[in-house]
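Lab channel / #folding
Pinned by the channel admin:
"Please post every new chain as: sequence first, then the structure tokens as a reply. Keep commentary short and put observations after the output so the thread stays searchable."

First post following the new format, from NK:
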Amino acid sequence: MIGIHACRRRAALGTLALLLSGCGGGGSDGDVAAVPVPTATPGPAPTPAPTPTPPAAAPCVTASTWQPWGTPGALRRWTPLDTDADAGRADDPGRAAGAPFDARLVVAFGRDADFSRRTVVLEMADGCRRSFQAGSFAAGDIAEIDARTAEHPLAADTRSHAIDYQFGRASAADVTAGRLGVYHTQHFSIWYGTDRTGFSYTHQAGRGASWDDMLRDTGAWAEQVWLLNRHLLDAPLPYLADAAPKRVNLYICGTGLPWVSGGDRGDCGASASDAMWMSSTYLQPGSTTLIHEFSHVISTYTGGFRDRPSVGPAWESYAEWNSVSLSLNGGDQVSGYLAQLEKGPTLSDLRYANWPWLVALHEADATRPLWWRIWTDNLREPGGRSREDQMEAIVRLGQASGAFPNGWRSFADFMGGFGARLAAGDFQMGKALLDYARRVPATERYAALSPGSAAGDYRSPADRPLLQYGTHLIRLAPASGATSVAVRLTGDPQAAQSAWRFRIVAIDAAGRATYSTMGVVDEAGTASAELPVVAGRRYVLAVTATPYVYQPLGWNGDTAFPTPTRFPYRVTIAGAVLG
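Reply from TO:
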């Protein structure tokens, strides 16, 4: 079974086996002991036809009423340091590039450090929102960001938080005896052993870095992460509503922690449940791993999504979302998902990579209020075992709130739209997502259809089948003389309640997307979509499997892991050939 523990790097800490499970391996996370849960708040061209009427302009999909600083700043000119519009690096994602543009400042947050990047969210003149690295703009722009940030400090928590001597772990006696050291901040206690032959000490010494400086920097960064989760992400933080709040514990392993069998001298990596366990490798300035692990702590204290194999992936995808939301370079494993979009966001082996659909959920005004409620309000057995997965929870709560009024059908529309947005990276953090995609060969990012029996007819690729909520991105090249690109899709259902959503996406030289109406195919039905041909635009067909019955997939590698349902289809393409 999946327990409540989740981690980012493999851990091995002897007697902590019951608390610290492996991560990134082939099996499931191990069971863990229960912890008290405090209160938490919440494709020949046809005969030329008359030029079709262009579709009406649609609202920008990243428009939002979310105003963490109140009214956005005045429309002003922003100047990227990188003047080449195609500039970008997968290892430094989210830098603005190209010609100066006009936008309003919505919010800025985070920190420029060794392992993190400060983020600025801008609202373009057309209402679209985009986030970039703040440091990728000219000095005058950075001065504007600094000034506005100073006007909007994060509100402090005025309460005192008590030390939490968790049973079988840190004790005051070990501190008094000199076997254990501790550095306290308002919301965290950072514990470490005093064996300086341990990995974490030697790692710091090898870097020529001060141990005490690391403690102070880690404490300050942890406090900033706490505040950003509270005020920016509205997270249900541990003890937030408790009358007697406690500090969250962070144990630096590889230091000789006295209660760990075997001496605790090795590198444990990074992991978390009701506390964080991290070696000094992951406690460098601006650590995005710390953001990730603290997200696990938040999830643990909600009491949500426990003891059910199919809920396990949510722990990692949520933590990666949290990390990249607070620092655009914090989602580096996403390229694994972008290289196999057909698998969708529910397979456990892509749990660190499949966070983009969570980005789409959180940036939408209708679903943002449900974001943490799926953790605090998921259906549970009396003992705490979850009765539903994250998708089941979001659809149930979304139907009740009106975000998904028709339940799974409404969610299918949302995921179909999400799949189409992947073609142009049409998200608030789209620049970062497209930069991450630079690691992915075109042969992996885009799907290749198989020829059918007639010209313009194709079948979905058998070697890359669509799984639930998976997407095929198919490049199209308008045929000479064509005035429009048209696609007709027919379903080939392998299971009841199979369905597909598809759109043609036109992408201009600036990366802006125009979408066809969404084609909806139920079972063996057929639907069509069409877009005018406009010179200078790239065309992509996006097809997403959108079933109306959710299939829990458990944990890949478990003996009970089910065979995922496949969603093959056929298409007829007019006015274009495969690109």
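NK: The chain has three domains: 1-34+152-303, 46-58+306-579, 76-137.
TO: also worth noting, The mean pLDDT is 90.
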